[in-house]
Write a structure and sequence with these properties.
By secondary structure, the chain is an alpha/beta fold. The chain folds into two domains: 107 residues, Rossmann fold; 105 residues, Rna Polymerase Sigma Factor, Chain: A. The protein contains ten helices and four strands, in the order βαβααααααβαβαα. Strands 1-2-3-4 form a four-stranded parallel beta sheet, sandwiched between helices. Strand 3, helix 8 and strand 4 form a beta-alpha-beta unit. Helix 2 packs antiparallel against helix 6 and helix 3 crosses helix 5. The protein is globular, with a radius of gyration of 20 Å. 33% of the residues are buried.
């Protein structure tokens, strides 16, 4: 089992719940539990969807979809997936050509900064391929992530795991901090190293720079 972010949380849960079935486990860009800050970011996303007038308590099938709420949720999430340095270096304060935010006549009709256009694109792209209720279910599953729940202290909770672990963190991740991965490694049975993925973009580095773990993955999972 291996995965990053929510996938890593699932892999960890399987390794603890079914130690006889998980021989190797890769956990990337996630910790032993979601913190209050991570829950707060997630709550803002689910609330954006639920407050969309078209959400209708989740029973929107066959009618208008809560597209605005889902797109806003994606914008909020995407900010946490990227680093401040990446957004600033890529977009800065530049206006989206030919738009100029400060020259428009009214707030409603103003132009956009490049970073706004980027977030709009990410939101609109998700709306075309994802269901709002599914987004809520997946987000709240990660909000609830806590490997210690009902299992006592963290070291006690992880003690049943017998898998060979591969842990990795992105050095610029501001959603799941590298310190959380290091704390998880320290609590796992035996000596577990944490590999650092060097990526300026933030959390999404576990996807874009997964090649940095090629040798470790081959040795651990395919050796």
């Amino acid at each position: 089992m291996l995965g990053g972010s929510l996938g890593g949380a699932r892999a960890l849960e399987w390794a603890v719940s079914y130690p006889d079935r998980v021989r190797r486990c890769g956990v990337f860009s996630v910790g032993a539990s979601s913190t209050a800050e991570q829950i707060a970011f997630a709550q803002a996303q689910t609330l954006a969807i639920r407050q969309d007038p078209n959400f209708n308590g989740g029973d929107y099938y066959g009618g208008l979809q809560p597209e605005a709420g889902l797109a806003l949720a994606r914008r909020i999430a995407h900010i946490t997936y990227r680093s401040a340095a990446e957004l600033d270096g890529r977009f800065g304060r530049e206006a989206q050509h030919p738009e100029a935010p400060l020259e428009a006549g009214s707030l409603a009709g103003r132009g956009r900064y490049q970073v706004e256009s980027y977030l709009d694109h990410q939101g609109n792209k998700l709306v075309r391929r994802f269901d709002a209720n599914s987004y809520i279910a997946i987000t709240e599953a990660l909000m609830s992530h806590d490997i210690s729940r009902g299992r006592g202290a963290l070291t006690d909770a992880l003690a049943p795991a017998t898998a060979e672990f591969l842990l990795a963190a992105v050095d610029s991740d501001r959603l799941y901090f590298p310190a959380q991965t290091r704390a998880l490694a320290a609590a796992l049975p035996g000596e577990v190293a944490v590999h650092t993925i060097e990526a300026p973009i933030g959390h999404d580095g576990f996807l874009t720079e997964i090649g940095q773990l090629t040798n470790q993955l081959r040795q651990r999972f395919f050796g």
